[in-house]
Specification:
mainly beta, OB fold (Dihydrolipoamide Acetyltransferase, E2P), 5 strands, 55% strand, rRNA binding
Length: 83
C-alpha cells in the first residue's frame, strides 16, 4: 500500500524532534453547496529539528514512532514569515 503524503503548515516546534503540522482540506458541502474548510493536526518526526513554526512542509506516513507520531517530515517546501 502506498504511503500517504500531505502538505501543511507547522504550527508548533516546541518538542524535540517533533513538529505539529496543520493539514487543511476543502470540500463542497453536500447540502448547502458551499466550500467548507476543515483542518486536522498531525505530529510528525523531524530528526534534525530543521522545521520552524510557519514553515510549509510535506509529511509522509510511516511506522508508529510514539503514541501520537506516525508521520515523518519529507521536505521543507517554503520557509515561514518568521525565518
Amino acid at each position: 500500500m502506498p504511503k500517504r503524503i500531505l502538505q501543511g503548515v507547522v504550527v508548533s516546534d516546541a518538542n524535540d524532534k517533533t513538529v505539529v503540522v496543520r493539514i487543511e482540506r476543502r470540500f463542497t458541502h453536500p447540502l448547502v453547496k458551499k466550500v467548507v474548510r476543515r483542518s486536522k493536526k498531525y505530529h510528525a518526526h523531524d530528526e534534525q529539528n530543521l522545521c520552524k513554526s510557519g514553515d510549509v512542509v510535506r509529511i509522509e506516513e510511516c511506522r508508529p514512532m510514539s503514541k501520537l507520531k506516525t508521520w515523518r517530515v519529507l521536505e521543507n517546501v517554503t520557509k515561514g514569515a518568521g525565518a
